[in-house]
Amino acid sequence: MTRYSKVIGTGAYLPPNIRTNEQISETVDTSDSWIYERTGIKSRRIAGPNESAASMAEIAARLALDAANCDANSIDLIIVATGTPDRVYPSTGCLLQQRLEIKNCVAFDIQAACSGSIFALSIADQYIKSGAAKTVLIVGTEICSRIVDWSDRSTCILFGDGAGAVLLSASNEAGILSTHIHSDGEYEDLLYCPNPQVATDLNKHETGVINMRGNEVFKVAVNTLGKIVDETLEANNMDKSDIDWLVPHQANIRIIMATAKKLKMSMDQVVVTLENQGNTSSASVLIAFNEAVRDGRIQRGQVVLLEAFGAGFTWGSALLKY
Ligand code: COA
Predict the structure, then answer these.
(1) Do residues 8 and 144 both lie within one domain?
(2) Number of H helices, E strands in the chain
């Protein structure tokens, strides 16, 4: 009998503090209309001074556990995707394990920038399918606001903070149908965030903020996400019309619309959260997935395509039967 990874619970957390386009336009030369037209973003959430990737992850994780009616101690693997960990080490996964008071599980972080949650889903699925794990908690959690240069109008308008979680369990019922992940390190210069603490003589002048050549990133993202859609459908011998929901990474509404068009999907079948959240990097797909599960749009038995693209470049998809 096939062993699947089935979603048994989802959760998300967004910090209450809102930063609008109007507020940003008070400090850099931009406007609400420019930002909204080019990105689809109106506002984003900003974590409070006492919040961290781990504290936000805990809230999202507890909501996913509650939704699944699952005790934290039944988790045997935690995978946290983050580019803004609380500490270099221990991993945010271990900090989350401590917060959830789980004594006996494996916990680690993965770093795949905005594709982190998709990479985590892929890893979790391999563990579950192979029998190495039964219950896996995945969290994407990011405090992008602390690695953004708030004087750079081309990046500070895009990002926001938040955490999304999903709990997977081994099941005989269909769950994750396939995952597809890719990396190409050639594109480092188009999107990167230095780590000044470990700088060499060559890059010690750099500060720890997001650097991006947005226009070039945009073009590669649209092209690559189109290809991953084809790859996913082909691997499952499925047609575009078999997909009920697209849950894309929330970077830019124009990138999302291009992928929906490729799938010949109406925007009514696409989960979009970026208007009031911006790009929450590795958290974005799981936050959007949670929203559509909780408001009843995504129903049990429906086919959902999750996809993301991020620094590296990294990109990937997960096709699942909810
Ligand atoms: N307000 C007003 N003008 C701005 C601006 C802002 N916030 N940011 C940039 N501009 C200006 C630029 O300086 C440039 O001016 P110039 O023509 O005088 O040189 C002009 O707008 C066009 O810049 P460009 O970068 O070509 O704009 P764009 O249409 O590509 O939009 C992004 C910029 C960042 C919104 C867009 O490229 C994007 O979303 N890229 C993808 C980013 C992404 O997804 N990153 C994460 C991947 S996970």
Answers:
(1) yes
(2) 8, 13
CA–CA gap between residue 166 and residue 127 (Å, rounded): 15
Residue 249 bears catalytic tag? yes
- Report the nearest-CA residue for atom 48 of ligand 1: 310
Tell me how far apart the alpha carbons of residues 78 and 109 are, in angstroms, rounded to a whole number: 8
Q: What CATH number corresponds to the domain at position 224?
A: 3.40.47.10
User: Which atom, in ligand 1's list, is nearest to the CA of 35?
Assistant: 7
Boundary-marking domain end, from 129, 148, 173: 173
* 115 and 211 fall within a common domain: no
Q: Tell me the per-residue pLDDT of 39-61, one tens digit each, with 9 for 90 and over.
A: 999 999 999 999 999 999 999 99
Distance (angstroms) between ligand 1 centre and the Cα of 118 equals 26
Q: Are residues 164 and 228 in the same domain?
A: no
In angstroms, the CA 13 to CA 316 distance is 23
What does residue 28 show for φ and ψ, rounded to 5 degrees?
Answer: -130, 160
Which candidate in 114, 144, 156, 193 is catalytic?
114
Distance from the alpha carbon of residue 215 to the mean position of ligand 1, in angstroms: 6
Total structural domains within the chain: 2
Tokens 């500070």 sit on residue: 156
Q: Which of these three, 138, 173, 208, is where a domain ends? A: 173
Specify the pairing of strand 18-20 against strand 314-321.
unpaired
CA of 319 to the centre of ligand 1 (A): 31
Q: Report whether 142 contacts 115 (CB < 8 A).
A: no
pLDDT per position as a tens digit, 197-229: 999 998 989 999 999 999 999 999 999 999 999
Q: Which two tokens stand for residue 65?
A: 């556990």
Cα-Cα-Cα-Cα dihedral sign, residues 281, 286, 288, 291: negative
Is residue 190 classed as helix, strand or coil in its secondary structure?
helix
User: What are the pLDDT digits (tens) for 71-125?
Assistant: 999 999 999 999 999 999 999 999 999 999 999 999 999 999 999 999 999 999 9
In the chain, the amino acid numbered 317 is S
